[in-house]
Design goal:
five-stranded mixed β-sheet; 330 residues; Outer membrane lipoprotein wza fold like; alpha+beta; wza like fold; 8 helices; 25% helix
Length: 330
């Protein structure tokens, strides 16, 4: 133990610069550079980046938490080896020293605390304690939203965003590529915009820390259904669409389409609404093209078909549910 203390003191002394000597520069992690790039794209200023760097550096110190499964070993005293889980109160029960509160401590701090309790109680002379985290339940990464297998992924260390998305089974067909990462100590989420093909932009593959929550929202979709060439759900993650643009992406209208009785079905605060539109006049530039919103349904009926009052919404919604979803880049 004495040798250990001397080595620690020597290491501490060598790590402190002497007067007049500047401390060696610390290299920034690659993930931070990517995060700063994402923040710069969203309009953050350099001062905010510096503050985020400080918080990120502090958050890299992993703390023990409720639910973590620990293996506690006392050197040369195998009888005191224990496998314990931190309770909801943040405590573990250990032989001889009873309950010890470990929640919020780093592994090194927890080891020192147990060593002190063993030494102060006269149970072990100069104890040396090591703690292994078998299950870091409290430090797992949570992945929510449009991935194949959302959930909590424990035992995360030295992982990056693409790897975590892969562990969650990848994106669903409806997933947005505008990802939000909520990190402990940050008041605002870190926002990362991914390419549809992840291999095209590795700079967005930011570092993921224990305790992070990754949210993958559903991308905005506009549905074009009815008497059109290719009834579709159009993902518009990076822009917006008008009526004529959406029709073009859906293969245009068929010759049998009833253009003058088309509808936009939109969800509002008071429920679903129907707005009749004149597509023929839009094509002739007699009426301005109309912008569409996320989750709108553009419904083009067939000529000769009689639309019953109150049935348009039902027909259009059923068609939208069956439509194939495509990614578009307006």
């Amino acid at each position: 133990m004495c040798t250990f203390l001397m080595a620690s003191a020597a290491a501490q002394q060598s790590s402190n610069p002497s007067p007049g000597q500047s401390a060696p520069p610390t290299d920034l992690p690659a993930a931070q550079t990517a995060t700063q790039a994402a923040q710069s794209a969203s309009g953050s200023n350099p001062q905010q980046n510096d503050e985020s760097k400080d918080i990120s550096d502090q958050s890299t110190i992993v703390k023990l938490g409720r639910g973590d499964l620990l293996e506690v070993n006392v050197y040369n005293v195998p009888e005191l080896t224990s496998k314990v889980r931190i309770s909801n109160s943040g405590d573990v029960y250990l032989p001889l020293i009873d309950y010890v509160h470990l929640e919020g401590l780093s592994q090194e701090e927890a080891q020192s605390l147990i060593e002190k309790r063993l030494a102060d109680g006269g149970f072990v002379r100069n104890p040396h304690v090591t703690i292994f985290v078998d299950e870091a339940s409290s430090q797992g990464v949570t992945i929510l939203g449009d991935v194949a297998k959302p959930g909590i992924y424990p035992d995360v260390a030295d992982h990056r965003l693409y790897e975590m998305i892969s562990q969650a089974g990848g994106f669903t067909q409806y997933a947005s590529r505008k990802i939000a990462i909520l990190r402990k100590g940050h008041s605002e989420p870190i926002r990362v915009e991914l390419s549809r093909n992840l291999a095209d932009d590795v700079s967005a593959n930011v570092e993921i820390l224990p305790g992070d929550t990754i949210t993958v929202p559903r991308a905005p979709i506009i549905y074009v259904v009815g008497d059109v060439g290719r009834p579709s759900g159009l993902l518009i993650d990076n822009g917006s669409l008008t009526v004529l643009q959406a029709l073009a992406l859906a293969g245009g209208t068929n010759r049998t389409a009833k253009l003058g009785d088309s509808r936009i079905i939109r969800r509002g605060p008071n429920g679903m609404t129907e707005t009749k539109i004149e597509i023929k006049k839009m094509l002739e530039a007699k009426t301005p093209d109309m912008p569409l919103q996320a989750d709108d349904i553009l419904f083009v009926p067939i000529s000769g078909a009689r639309l019953l009052v109150g049935k348009t919404l039902e027909i259009a919604t059923a068609a939208a549910t069956a439509a194939t979803v495509y990614s578009v880049h307006p």
